[in-house]
Amino acid sequence: MAFNTVPRKVGILGYGRLGQSLVSHLLTQGPELGLELVFVWNRDPGRMAGSVPPTLQLQNLAALGERHPDLVVEVAHPKIIHESGAEILRYANLLVGSPSALADQATERQLLEASHCWGHAVFVARGALWGTEDIARLDKAGGLQSLRVTMATHPDGFRLEGPLATVHSTGPRTVLYEGPVRGLCPLAPRNSNTMAAAALAAPSLGFDRVIGVLVADFSLKDMHVVDVELSGPPGPKGRSFAVHTHRENPSEPGAVTGSATITTFWRSLLGAEHGMSQAPGAQPSPPSVYHERQRLELCAVHALNNVLQQQLFSQEAADEICKRLAPDSRLNPHRSLLGTGNYDVNVIMAALQGQGLAAVWWDRRRPLSQLALPRVLGLILNLPSPVSLGLLSLPLRRRHWVALRQVDGVYYNLDSKLRAPEVLGNEDGVRAFLAAALAQGLCEVLLVVTKEVEEKGSWLRTD
User: Fold this and answer.
1) Is 363 a catalytic residue?
2) Residue from 299, 302, 322, 344 carrying the catalytic annotation
3) CB 77 within 8 A of CB 189
4) Positive/negative CA dihedral, 56, 60, 66, 72
């Protein structure tokens, strides 16, 4: 069954084993899933001759915007992300099949800025990483202290660069590299994607603290073996939670990609397509809940409209407030110099005052049991937010405004980066959400209340 009545347009970058498999799936299964293949690009166009219809062959990567894709899938080489990733985001959402590219901090920042500027999302294929969602959940909960990923295969399966290219195996099993994933990615860009996916799944550790191990094993002629070892912080009795997974992925002799990885990439493509309509874990938006989605750096505007449950403010209105707050400033201190938004708290407070409301800072030293939620119209949080990557996150943080609001007796997280409102449930659910956010140490909470509640201080329980 199709996800949408209008087909999603998909472009493929790269026509190796992965690209060929995805193109085949899109041509045979795409129509019934609501997916339309609109182009295939390969660095060597001759490789597509005779297998890709001429009308689908894209000869010039710079012309991909003319095909109007909704999603571009990169399965070529990390260099494509380095060189063209930010430009692709001008026209479409991007599924990165070579996450080792994101170990380069300049590339990481370029994608972040382009995603914010053009309103398109970045997704990351999980590849051969087993347990991605479990790692991400554990990391988000603060339960991850160490993560180590070991990939072993026959030396013919490696495509190494720099100093690693001259390393020779000294026995039946040789450790070629052991250290931070960030250091491995430029040396083995096509053999470190599993480790890179792990670093993105665990942003608290990131590329510098997730350990990658690359092993040349002459006995593994037709197989890639991936071991994932993780542990949590010591508990009250000094013992730590630990997990060790062992995955054997059949492969053709000398192949970079294992057979199971090819299947996983198709699922990642479907997940990215579905993610453009619905974020993982979010509930379908009930008709009565107003929810604006992120555009540019307008999270403050979205948070205001979401907490007030109607479209009262626009970028133009927020810019006008900035001018009133600093009428004589050439460079307005209350917004981004680039004109993309990024409004500060003064704009939010002035906007609420214009609606006859008030914003009260919550003292994080108070216990949340003292918060009188029935007297509060809604909450606006300022917190560190990771780069949007679909199922995964880049290990970067930016300040972000988020609205929480009760609608028909149910509290919702109305974060504009979510594809749909996230149900928090009753008051206990809100307090649990706030406790987790405040525990990060960088979260601030604004209570949106009426003037009367502000004057009486009735947002605070005294019993």
Assistant:
1) no
2) 299
3) yes
4) positive
- Angstrom distance (rounded) from CA 450 to CA 459: 10
Separation CA 149–CA 227 (nearest Å): 6
299 part of the active site: yes
pTM for this predicted structure:
0.59
| Residue 77 near residue 192, CB atoms below 8 Å | no
Over the stretch 346-361, which tens digit does the pLDDT of each residue have?
A: 888 888 888 788 888 8
Strands 357-361 and 422-425: unpaired
Q: How many CA atoms does the CB half-sphere of 268 hold within 13 Å?
A: 34
User: Could you say which of 70, 217, 344, 415 is catalytic?
Assistant: 415
On whether the CB atoms of residues 89 and 11 are closer than 8 A, the answer is no
Q: List, for residues 272-322, the tens digit of each pLDDT value.
A: 765 554 333 333 334 467 888 877 778 888 898 888 888 778 878 888 888
- State yes or no: is 44 an active-site residue: no
Residues 389 and 333 in one domain: yes
> What's the CATH code of the domain at 411?
3.90.70.40
**Is residue 179 domain-resident?**
yes
